[in-house]
Amino acid sequence: MSHISTGVEYGLHCLLYLSDPAAGVSDASAKDLAELQGVPVEYVAKLFTKLSRAGIVAATEGVRGGFRLARPAAEISVLDVVNAIDGNKALFDCREIRANCAVFGDKPPAWATRGVCSIHAVMLDAEKRMTESLAAHSLADLATRTVEKAPAAYGHQVVKWLGHRSSTRRSESGNPHRNAHQGEKS
């Protein structure tokens, strides 16, 4: 079992598309972002609820509504996203089994349980380093890495795809017959 969930991966990928409004995508629906990447729509919608509660995204209103970043991408750390989606959970849960050694009988000696368990100390150090690393990387950093890898045309294709989805929603909302028909399917 991994410490950081798949939800964090999905959430970060979705947030990357919102991280550069200059590219033409300032907001998008959770549904469109999920479908763009081939990930479960319902799951992404739940993730965006968590991201919204954490102040990472804000809802935009109207037919073209969806979500936008609540603050600049450079001010959103990977740790912020991990904590928003997975919660601030410990990497390791020490069970203090050092006190259960059979040779101690019912009463472990003080030396055996004094201070922090040496295994737990290593895990605390690892957690501290992981937290520092996740805090040191922003959404803007990830977006820069992604843009550097992708061909220039990719960004335009994404903007066009999301724009088409948005305009389709807008035209569907203006057609009462289509809305009535869609209501029958629900």
Automatic annotation (TrEMBL):
Q: Tell me the InterPro entries matching this sequence.
A: TR_Rrf2-type_CS, Tscrpt_reg_Rrf2, WH-like_DNA-bd_sf, WH_DNA-bd_sf
**Molecular function as annotated in GO:** DNA-binding transcription factor activity
Q: Which GO terms describe its cellular component?
A: cytosol
Regions annotated as coiled coil? none
Q: Where is this region: Disordered?
A: 165-186
**Pfam families reported for this sequence:** Rrf2 (PF02082)
User: What domain of life does the native source organism fall in?
Assistant: Bacteria
Extract the SUPFAM superfamilies matched here.
Winged helix' DNA-binding domain
Its transmembrane ranges are none
Q: Which NCBIfam families match?
A: rrf2_super
What protein does this entry describe? Rrf2 family protein
The species is: Paraburkholderia bryophila
